[in-house]
Design brief:
Blueprint lengths: L1 H16 L10 E10 L3 E8 L6 E4 L3 E5 L3 E3 L6 E6 L2 E7 L2 E6 L4 E7 L7 E8 L10 H5 L1 E7 L16 H17 L4 E5 L9 H10 L4 E8 L10 E5 L7 H11 L1 H5 L9 H12 L3 H16 L11 E3 L11 E8 L3 H7 L2 H20 L12 H7 L3 H9 L7 E5 L6 H8 L3 H8 L9 E5 L9 E5 L6 H7 L4 H7 L13 E5 L2
Parallel strand pairs: 1-5, 11-12, 11-13, 13-16, 14-15
Antiparallel strand pairs: 1-2, 2-10, 3-4, 4-8, 6-7, 7-8, 9-10, 14-16, 17-18, 19-20
Helix pairs in contact: 3-10, 8-10, 13-14
Length: 507
Amino acid sequence: MYLGLRIYLTVVIFLVGVTIPPFSWGAFTIEKVRSWAAPDHTRVVFDATDVPEFKVEETVEEVIIWLTAVEYGPSVKPVIRLAKPGINTIFMEKDRIRISLTEYREIKVFKLPPIEEKPHRLVVDVYLPEVEREKVDAKAAKKRTIVIDPGHGGDDPGAIGIKGTQEKDVVLSVSKKIRDHINKTKGFRAVLTREGDYYVPFRKRMKIARSNQAELFLSIHADAERTHLARGASVYVLSLKGASSEAARILAKKENLADIIGGTMASETMLDGESESILLNMVQTNSMNNSRRFGSALLRTIKTCHLVKFRRVQEAPFLVLKLPEIPSVLIELGYISNRREEKMLMNHKFQERLAQAIAEASINFLSGKKAVKIAESGERKMRIETEPKESERKELRTKKPEIKETISYRVVSGETWVSIAERCGLSVGELQGMNKTKRLVAGQAINIPATGCLDRKKILYYRVKKGDTLDKIAKRYNISIDKLREINRHKRIQPLQYGEILLLPRK
């Protein structure tokens, strides 16, 4: 009995002396720390290799995020002096992240799952004290307001061009030029939903439009597609039933993911119930008809300085256009995935001319004037260059890539039309057309382009899985993202598509 009591007391004493951690999770690594400052908050994003489970401890001067078995990548500094509104310094310590704060109103810490190229993310939003808004004078209050919404921003770059140009930068630059043109016109003023590199959720964009009593809402974007051949601007309005084309459906699906990519908490995104009530209200107004009329006038004006992809206004269920009382359009300035248009969209003079066209179409619509052709200027050469004749447009649509020279290639066991086409940068149809057959067996001699095909012995084929990102694949196979893009240069691999085949260098 005494022996049993002694053992029991020993165990109790041992347990009391041991500090048991309040929680325990698997190890993960924080590989990158990024930050953005918006007018009302500062955001810090920690990119992680796995789900970042955490607990938060908040004081007046700092917030501590407790993490178990966390490791830090080589690029993460132990002390990050941020010196942005609300945040002074970030300390990356063992089992925790400590953030030194200045003045703030509220803190939100949440995690985001991987999507497209974004990994697991731990997000810290530090909201700033309410700043007294400048009172709008009587003259400004009487002006007709147009709200301009530069798409994407912050953690959401939008489409990315061949040379790395980001959609969020292009559309912000053009939007500022549209604003400047409008503000020069007597009786009109323009307001931007964002003026820097930060993300604004859909709901807040709508709030900005309503609080400024906007009479028009312009959402500015740049498009992208896989083949890099598509060109031209296009205009979209909201559809209650669905998309007017397959291209419109795909575009709407991509743009509606922006809140998730940009890092908006689920509670702040547009909920189905809210969307349905908004649509119900919209049916009872004539704003959709006005949006179509404005979109048509806008297309006619854009034609004076730029190639237009669709002659008619397209329709799709864009979340950002669901403003029941305000005529709203989404403008795709062009295809940033097209080498030629990417260069044009970064050109200051072209941006100015495009911005002038959009501004004048908006002002004319609200003034009740018909769309007028913008006066010719010294930039006529650029207009002619960017707007080919109808016969040339037809040729661009129907012309297939010309293969000047071919060589004979003997098919190896296990190869398919798809695998050969992938490494030669062709579609399966183009490759079969060169050979005038759909039959393919091992040992068969077929024609392939004399140049541009990658060596079969130097590459691997990889099918994209759920949760994959370029960063994860590159690390898994110990190659750089630039090398991954280079070997897949014939295709657009951003964003990654589930089931898509990538080429990888064979070690």
